[in-house]
Write a structure and sequence with these properties.
Elements lengths: L10 H7 L9 H4 L2 H22 L5 H12 L1 H10 L10 H5 L6 H19 L1 H11 L1 H7 L9 H13 L4 E8 L6 E8 L2 E8 L2 H36 L1
Helix pairs in contact: 1-7, 3-4, 3-7, 3-8, 5-7, 7-8, 10-11
Amino acid sequence: MIPKAIPLRNEALFRLAMCHRSAVTNTTEDSYERLEFFGDSVLGLIVAQFLYEHHPDWDQGMLSKAKSSVVQEGPLAETALKLGLDAHLTLSASEEQTGGRARPSILADVLEAIIGGIYLESGLETARWFVLEQLNPYLQMIAGGDVNPNDYKSKLQEIAQAIWRKAPQYRIRDEAGVAHNRRFTVDVLFDSEVMGTGSGRSKKEAEQAAAQDALNLIESARRARENALSLESSALGRD
């Protein structure tokens, strides 16, 4: 059954949008990949037009960064989860066992496939309404001019320079997938030591995920030090 928040009536089209390549033999006809490819373009057009019309004072660079921030994997995967699309995914047993139902890349893909399906069934205006309604929190987030609220690379750069006086280095660990649906895995290193790992549908997206992973590690270490100092202070106070 199609979730109520999705303006799509064609059950067959919905099932196609939910079908991962691992679950079918003919991936061209029976998986969501062609629909996702189409939906990606529809999504880009809708967000680009919205930004162009609502932010006349932003130059090309600002518009490009803002668009990338909204249509990247994270916001799309979060939106897919909010819509409950994870419960409707059709996956192979092995993909299911390895966490495919919660994998951000798959969730982002099926949301784009849904957008493509809505366009094919009802046209651009219905697709526009759906996209702007669902992605409104992320559009509002950048409305004040912070077009990179999730720019973890810049945050890591600042912290690294302050703590170690060194810049992080990024290295591609793996690259997989078909031509229009590549998947990159990237490590971020300090002095040849891996501090974080991330993946994404582009090198830039994977680097951002790796930087976020490193920032989480740094924050965990900071909290551990604070807790240790607090315990030490309490012990000295009792003495």
